[in-house]
Each structure stands twice: as C-alpha cells, then as structure tokens.
Amino acid sequence: MRRYGKHTDEDDIRQRPNRKGNRPRTNIRPKHEEAVDGMVLTVDRGRLTCLVGDHVVMAMKARELGRKAAVVGDHVAIVGDLSGDKDTLARIVRIESRTSVLRRTADDDDPFERVVVANADQLAIVTALADPEPRPRLIDRCLVAAFAGGLKPILVMTKSDLASPDKILELYGALDIPYVVTSREELENGDAADRVREQLDGKITAFVGHSGVGKTTLVNALVPADRRRSTGHVNAVTGRGRHTTTSALALPLASEGGWVIDTPGVRSFGLHHVDPSQVIKAFPDLEPGTEGCPRACSHDEPECALDQWVADGHADPARLYSLRRLLSTRERREGD
C-alpha cells in the first residue's frame, strides 16, 4: 500500500473522477424567463403535443421537473425550438397551477392515482340507454370524481331510440345535473351535436364513458372534420365496446371558444384517492348541516347531523339520499 508523508502535496494524490461531473450541486433552478405559455393537447410515450399560440409544438418534460408529469389540459411553460417544424423538440420546464383535476385509480385498492385531465371546466358523462346497458355505479363514480376534482358534471344519454331515459333521470333528478338525451338518428344528422354544444361553448369539457356508448361518435360530431377520431362497435355477445380511443386528446370545438377532451373508454373508475369531505362541497344545501356531525363522520351513521338537518326542512330528503349513494360507491363494485 502506498503511503503519503507529511510533505505530500495534494497534486501527488490521485483523485477519483466524479461520475456525475465535477460541477457542484445546487438547488438553484433556472427561472426560464424566456419560456412561453402552452397547453398540452395529448401525451404519447413521453412526447407531449402542445398548442403554442396558433401552432402545434412537440415537447418533452425537462429533467428538473422530476417525477411531476404533465397531462392533457395542463398549462405549461416551454423553451427551446418552438417552430413546430418536423423533428424539432422543445422542453416543458414548468407546469402551472391547476384549477381542476380529473383523477382515477385502477381500482379502489390501488393507491396510485392517475390524473387523466387537468383544468377542465366540465365533465360530460356519456352513457347509452341500451346496447350496452347503462351502468349507474360507473356514473356514480364519475360524478364523485367530478365533484372531488372541481368539475361541473353533465349527463349525456345516447341511443334513446332503444330505451327510455326515465329511470336514469329519476335516479339523478335530485342532483340537478344538466343533461341531454340523444338518439342514434340525431347523432347521424347532427341534431344531437347542436344540443350538446349548447352546454359546451366557451368551456373546456372532458368526455368520459364506457366503451361503446357513442362517446367518440359524439365528439367527432362536435369537432372539425379533419380532427375526427376512429370509432368502434359493440360486441353482440359480450355487450362491450372496443377501445378505439387509447389516449386523451384535446380538440377544439367546430364553433369558436371551447374545447372537448376525448378520453379512453373506461370499464372501471377507482376512487381510492377521493376524500369524502370534498364530495359534500357539491351539495351546498347539505354542507351547512355537517357542522353538528362527529369528527370524520361518514354521513351515513346514526350520529350524522344531516338527518336532523333534513328533518328540520333545510334540504330535500332526496338530496341526502343521493349524497349517501355517491359516498357509498367506494364500498360497492361497479357491477353491483
């Protein structure tokens, strides 16, 4: 072993190179004052298509963002080549604060939440009245996710030529949710799109629904012809639709002043991430009545103060029933 004496100079000692480079670490991050604003339109294998001004730019996430991921609808700050030319790639260096988020988990036991859409104003929940049969539990779960994420829900019922909407309307009437009922013929001739568009103009609206309910067909009727997506069919044996939309995509409305975000068809909507206290905020007529509730009240137990609140005439009993049905949806499977 080589030994160094008291007269050894530091130049006599061989130093190991720093594998990560010799620059000292710092917590100071560049401010990127030259960054421009953009909106994420879609995400595909680490590449993000963004709208910058009036043109589209391909970008990737900057390393300094760490694990933080941008999703469709995010407002971001972008630097680099912003020409939008072929084979160019810009960098997203900042993700701005979100006004709303639509989240889901794979199932209720999955702690890993996925942000599907950011900054949407509304959530259009599309359900067929038949072929495939409506799934109220899935609708309930989408409503809970909308209320918890700060989105206004809209119920869109398709294929009314095959079944009546009365049962669905009775089930959700107490929630005062805007709704539109459409038939297959109306989807084909454009009448359905005209009535749905009345709820969408000037807003960013995410569309969600079970595969095969006509969600993408409706989106195609709302957007310019050159932006339309492929559609599928319902399997006659299983009653399930084929997933034709594989990634969320923001599309401008054919009329000015609004966006629709088409999301992949869902067969489950986990709510592991939802804080029940957020759901009550969507019931302003019931929320004041919770002041007398015990701590961590589930709002469906003997000590819940909402029963007395309703008994005193402050709110409709149907509203309390609807709240409790939505809150209990985490304990029920969607097929129950």
UniProtKB/TrEMBL annotation:
Binding site for GTP: 158-161, 209-217
GO molecular function: GTP binding; GTPase activity; metal ion binding; rRNA binding
Cofactor: Zn(2+)
Name of a matching Pfam family: RsgA_GTPase
Cellular component aspect of the GO annotation: cytoplasm
Residue ranges with Basic residues bias: 16-29
Broad enzyme group: hydrolase
UniProt entry tagged with the keyword Transmembrane helix: no
All residue ranges annotated as the EngC GTPase domain in the record: 118-267
Domain CP-type G: 109-269
Region annotation (Disordered) ranges: 1-31
InterPro entries reported for this sequence: G_CP_dom, P-loop_NTPase, Ribosome_biogen_GTPase_RsgA, RsgA_GTPase_dom
Subcellular location: Cytoplasm
One record GO biological process: ribosomal small subunit biogenesis
EC number: 3.6.1.-
Cofactor binding note of this UniProt entry: Binds 1 zinc ion per subunit.
Keywords: Cytoplasm, GTP-binding, Hydrolase, Metal-binding, Nucleotide-binding, Ribosome biogenesis, RNA-binding, rRNA-binding, Zinc
HAMAP family: GTPase_RsgA (MF_01820)
Subunit structure of this chain's protein: Monomer. Associates with 30S ribosomal subunit, binds 16S rRNA.
Function of the protein: One of several proteins that assist in the late maturation steps of the functional core of the 30S ribosomal subunit. Helps release RbfA from mature subunits. May play a role in the assembly of ribosomal proteins into the subunit. Circularly permuted GTPase that catalyzes slow GTP hydrolysis, GTPase activity is stimulated by the 30S ribosomal subunit.
Family: Belongs to the TRAFAC class YlqF/YawG GTPase family. RsgA subfamily.
Name assigned to this protein: Small ribosomal subunit biogenesis GTPase RsgA
Native source organism of the sequence: Streptomyces sp. R21
